[in-house]
Design a protein that fits this description.
Distance between the termini: 102 Å
Protein name: Vacuolar iron transporter
Helix content: over 70%
Structural class: mainly alpha
Shape: elongated
Number of domains: 1
Pfam families: VIT1
Radius of gyration: 26 Å
Number of helices: 6
Function: Vacuolar Fe(2+) uptake transporter.
Membrane topology: Multi-pass membrane protein
Keywords: Ion transport, Iron, Iron transport, Membrane, Transmembrane, Transmembrane helix, Transport, Vacuole
Length: about 220
């Protein structure tokens, strides 16, 4: 016999079950979206870090032998363009190779009689999108040392500002990498920061040494 509550609310249990199913689907979708966003964000952070370190190191190398701000800015801009193009082409070729492999796998599945409904085509990589994202991320990172040095005439001050701006940005990028990769924040920041310092110091020192030898 039905209880008084069941008689009063005959559809309560069904409604509750439906709401729980909807909530569970929403949570799954959120987890999936977060995972996809995390992959793209992590790749963007790595690309920006690469652009920052390579461009700042190049500018420090030029600054080791030339005090002219124009030479330093032109070198940094050339590094930005060359690096962004290199990143885009490399990413395009890499992702296109992955796409060819996955398309070949889809073709093999069709040959063994699998229907189109059983083949997931939505997850296929996009080479053009990956190339543009890599180039953009590299450019964003490279703009940090370029903008920091653009309006400073004093040579030593300009070098110091480039190092400080690059160091601050490296700590930010290292923190983002730690959050996205669920790693320790302090260790990640120090790792990226020390790596950037080594790259800038090595480029500065070696370029200065070679510059003196050539004079």
């Amino acid at each position: 016999m039905a209880t008084r509550d069941q008689q009063a609310f005959p559809n309560f249990k069904q409604t509750l079950d439906v709401e729980q199913q909807i909530t569970s689907v929403e949570i799954e979708n959120k987890d999936f979206d977060y995972s996809q966003r995390a992959q793209w964000l992590r790749a963007a952070v790595l690309g920006a870090t690469d652009g920052l370190v390579s461009t700042a190191s190049l500018m420090m190398g030029i600054g080791a032998v030339k005090e002219d701000v124009k030479a330093m800015i032109l070198a940094g801009f050339a590094g930005l363009v060359a690096g962004a193009c290199s990143m885009a082409i490399g990413e395009f070729v890499s992702v296109y190779s992955q796409l060819d492999i996955e398309l070949a796998q889809i073709k093999r599945k069709r040959n063994v009689g699998e229907s189109d409904q059983e083949i997931d085509k939505e997850g296929l990589p996009n080479p053009l999108q990956a190339a543009l994202a890599s180039a953009l991320a590299f450019s964003v990172g490279a703009m940090v040392p370029l903008l920091s040095a653009a309006f400073i005439r004093e040579h030593k001050v300009r070098l110091g500002v480039v190092v400080c701006a690059a160091s601050l940005a490296l700590m930010v990028f290292g923190g983002l990498s730690a959050v996205l990769g669920k790693a320790q924040l302090k260790r990640s920041c120090l790792r990226v920061l020390i790596g950037g310092w080594l790259a800038m110091a090595s480029t500065y020192g070696l370029t200065r040494l070679v510059g003196h030898e050539l004079q």
